[in-house]
């Protein structure tokens, strides 16, 4: 039998951690991105598993500190564990997260592209007008995980969240 109070506490811990926004792309949360892997209670301590988007991500420590702080503010003793395996993939971005990126003006990663999307430029739809008549201007956008594109239909520049 599951202790209902324990289950409610675990859910509250998840909700607190899941609400943390990504510091580089604040329109999405760590849960939207799929980098918050789990939150569990261990001997009264809320432990959150966080996977960086890539090993050199400069926001990793900021994210870990923010998740720990959110758990503490929710009344938990807290600890964050960095989970490196399996490595994060853009496939873990939720449907809601993809929509939030698009609404923010960032084209979400192409879904189910596999490793082939790492080579060459994928067909990327403009987040503003939806046209696929777009071109990559630079492999790197405002952060290393994004590329810079331009829509030929509406002439607007935009970032594309690269597939990993």
Automatic annotation (TrEMBL):
Pfam families: FeS_assembly_P, Zn_ribbon_PaaD
Domain called PaaD zinc beta ribbon: residue spans: 116-162
Ranges for domain MIP18 family-like: 13-80
Top-level taxon in the UniProt lineage: Bacteria
InterPro entries xrefs: Fe-S_Maturation_MIP18, FSCA_dom_sf, MIP18-like, PaaD-like, Zn_ribbon_PaaD
Naturally occurring in which organism (per UniProt): Rhodosalinus halophilus
SUPFAM superfamilies named among the record's database cross-references: Fe-S cluster assembly (FSCA) domain-like
Name of this chain's protein: Phenylacetate-CoA oxygenase subunit PaaJ
């Amino acid at each position: 039998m599951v202790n209902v109070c324990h289950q409610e506490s675990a859910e509250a811990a998840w909700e607190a951690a899941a609400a943390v926004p990504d510091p580089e792309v604040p329109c999405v949360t760590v849960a939207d991105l799929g980098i918050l892997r789990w939150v569990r209670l261990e001997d009264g301590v809320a432990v959150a598993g966080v996977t960086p988007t890539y090993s050199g991500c400069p926001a990793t420590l900021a994210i870990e500190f923010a998740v720990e702080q959110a758990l503490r503010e929710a009344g938990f003793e807290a600890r964050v564990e960095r989970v490196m395996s399996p490595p994060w993939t853009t496939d873990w971005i939720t449907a809601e997260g993809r929509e939030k990126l698009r609404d923010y003006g960032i084209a979400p990663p192409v879904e189910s592209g596999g490793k082939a999307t790492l080579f060459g430029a994928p067909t990327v739809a403009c987040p503003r007008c939806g046209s696929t008549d777009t071109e990559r201007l630079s492999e790197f956008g405002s952060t290393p995980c994004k590329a810079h594109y331009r829509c030929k239909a509406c002439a607007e520049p935009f970032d594309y969240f690269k597939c990993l």
